[in-house]
Design brief:
With about 90 residues, the chain is mostly helical. Helix content is about 60%, strand content about 5%. It is built from 5 helices and 3 strands; from the N terminus they run E-H-H-E-E-H-H-H. The protein has a 3-stranded antiparallel beta sheet. Strand 2 and strand 3 form a beta hairpin. Helix 1 crosses helix 2 and helix 3 crosses helix 4. The longest helix is centred in the middle third of the chain and has 16 residues.
């Protein structure tokens, strides 16, 4: 499975690597591997998607970071069709 560095993800999301490091230091995100101190974190596609959705929720809708991460993880974990049905209920 392909994994990306924090620097690569930061570039793709147009944020500073420090933002990603801070998020990952304070919150657990599925798809992030970290062996031990001194070994760079690696993020899989799921983790990158969760961070991208989280970033939009916090920046555009001003959702608090912890809540935004929970919502993003739920959306990413849900199959596409199920997510569309849930979001389409309007309630």
């Amino acid at each position: 499975m392909r994994a990306y560095t924090v620097a690569t993800v930061a570039l793709a999301l147009r944020v500073r690597p420090k933002w990603i490091d801070n998020v990952l230091s304070h919150h657990r995100v599925r798809g992030v591997s970290q062996a031990r101190q001194g070994i760079p974190r690696r993020l899989n596609r799921e983790a990158v998607t969760v961070l991208a959705v989280t970033l939009r929720l916090t920046a555009v809708l001003r959702v608090p970071l912890g809540h935004a991460l929970a919502v993003a993880e739920a959306l990413v974990a849900t199959r596409e069709g199920e997510a569309q049905r849930e979001l389409g209920r309007g309630g």
